[in-house]
TrEMBL record:
Domain of life: Bacteria
Annotated pathway: Cofactor biosynthesis; adenosylcobalamin biosynthesis
InterPro entries to which the protein is assigned, alphabetical: Cobalamin_biosynth_CobD/CbiB
Transmembrane regions: 57-75, 156-178, 288-310
Matches recorded under NCBIfam families: cobal_cbiB
Membrane topology value: Multi-pass membrane protein
HAMAP family the UniProt entry points to: CobD_CbiB
Main localization, broad class: membrane
Gene, per the UniProt record: cobD_2
Name the record gives this protein: Cobalamin biosynthesis protein CobD
Length: 312
C-alpha cells in the first residue's frame, strides 16, 4: 500500500475505528457527561434570546449561538497540529457516538423480558422511550425496544459516522449537538412550535442522507428484498421523513412487525404498521442490536475502501 493510501486511511478510517473502539470499551461517561453541560448552556442561550425575540428567526439564532462556536473551536484546534488534530477527531467521535450505551439499554430491557419479568422490562423500557409503558404486554415491550434500537442506530451512531467521514471530529460534534437541540427544542407544542422550528428542520437535513444509508445498511445485512419493499411502501406513511426509512427497512430486515398504536403522555396515537411477519419478541431485541453492530462494521469497511479508491 502506498504512502498516500496510508495517509488517507489514517485521516478517516483509523480515527473512526479508534473512536468506535473507545466507545466499545468505555461507553458513555457515567458522570459529568459533556452533553449535560451543553444542555445547560443551550438553556441559558434560549433564555437570553427569548428576552429580546421569539419565533423562527430567534430559534435559528439560538441554534447558531449554541452550536457553531463549539464546531469552529474544534476545527481551529484540529488545524493547529496534526497529532492534536488526530486526538480531537478520535475524542469527538467517541463523544458523539453511543453504540455501547444503545446496546446496554436494549439488553437491560431484553434480559428481564426473556426471563418473564414483564414489570422489570416495562420499567427499564420507560427509561429509553417516551411512550407509556405501564400497560404494554410482552410483544408491546419488545416492539418498542426494537423500534428504539433501529431508530437510534441512526441518531446515536450512523449520523455521527457520516458527518465524521465528511468533516472529521467537528462534523461529528455538529451532528451530536444538533441532535441534542432537536431533542430539547424540536417539539410541536405552544412553547417550541416556532422557536424550535430551526432545530427540528436542521436535524432533519443533517439526518437525511445518513438515515437512508442506515436503511440501506439494514437492508443489505438482513432480509434484503423484504427490507427494500417495506422501505419503499411503508416509510412514506411514517410521520418522520428520516425515522420512516430507517425503521421500515430495519423491520423488514429483521422480518418482524413494528409500529401500530402507541400511547404517548396519555394520548393514543395511531401509527402505521412497519415491517412484515410476526410481532417482535424478546429474542428480536438482540437481533436488532446485532443488526446495528454489523452495520457499524459495514460502514467502517466501506468508508476505508471508498477513500482508498478515490485516491488510487
Amino acid at each position: 500500500m502506498s504512502a498516500l493510501h496510508l495517509t488517507v486511511l489514517f485521516s478517516v478510517a483509523v480515527p473512526m475505528g479508534l473512536g468506535l473502539l473507545l466507545d466499545r470499551i468505555f461507553g458513555e461517561p457515567s458522570h459529568h457527561h459533556p452533553l449535560v453541560g451543553f444542555g445547560r448552556y443551550a438553556a441559558a442561550v434560549e433564555r437570553l434570546i427569548r428576552r429580546v425575540a421569539d419565533g423562527r428567526g430567534a430559534g435559528l439564532l439560538a441554534w447558531s449561538v449554541a452550536v457553531l462556536p463549539w464546531v469552529a473551536l474544534a476545527g481551529s484546534l484540529k488545524e493547529a497540529d496534526a497529532w492534536l488534530g488526530l486526538a480531537i477527531d478520535v475524542g469527538l467521535l467517541y463523544f458523539a457516538v453511543g453504540g455501547r450505551s444503545l446496546a446496554e439499554h436494549a439488553r437491560a430491557v431484553g434480559t428481564p423480558l426473556a426471563a418473564g419479568d414483564l414489570a422489570g422490562a416495562r420499567q427499564r423500557l420507560s427509561w429509553i422511550v417516551s411512550r407509556d409503558t405501564a400497560e404494554l404486554d410482552e410483544a408491546g415491550v419488545a416492539k418498542a425496544t426494537v423500534e428504539s434500537v433501529l431508530e437510534n442506530g441512526n441518531d446515536a451512531i450512523f449520523g455521527a459516522l457520516f458527518w465524521f467521514a465528511l468533516l472529521g471530529g467537528p462534523g461529528a460534534l455538529m451532528f451530536r449537538l444538533a441532535n441534542t437541540l432537536d431533542a430539547m427544542w424540536g417539539y410541536r407544542n405552544e412553547r417550541y412550535l416556532r422557536f424550535g422550528w430551526a432545530a427540528a428542520r436542521i436535524d432533519d437535513v443533517l439526518n437525511f442522507i445518513p438515515a437512508r444509508l442506515t436503511a440501506l445498511s439494514y437492508a443489505l445485512l438482513g432480509h434484503t428484498a423484504a427490507a427494500l419493499r417495506c422501505w419503499r411502501t411503508q416509510a412514506p406513511s411514517w410521520d418522520s421523513p428520516n425515522a420512516g426509512p430507517v425503521m421500515a427497512s430495519g423491520a423488514g430486515a429483521l422480518h418482524v412487525s413494528l409500529g401500530g398504536p402507541a400511547v404517548y403522555h396519555g394520548h393514543l396515537e395511531t401509527r402505521p404498521t412497519l415491517g412484515t411477519g410476526a410481532p417482535a419478541r424478546a429474542a428480536d431485541i438482540d437481533k436488532a442490536v446485532a443488526l446495528v453492530h454489523n452495520s457499524v462494521w459495514l460502514w467502517l469497511m466501506a468508508i476505508a475502501a471508498i477513500n482508498v479508491l478515490i485516491h488510487a
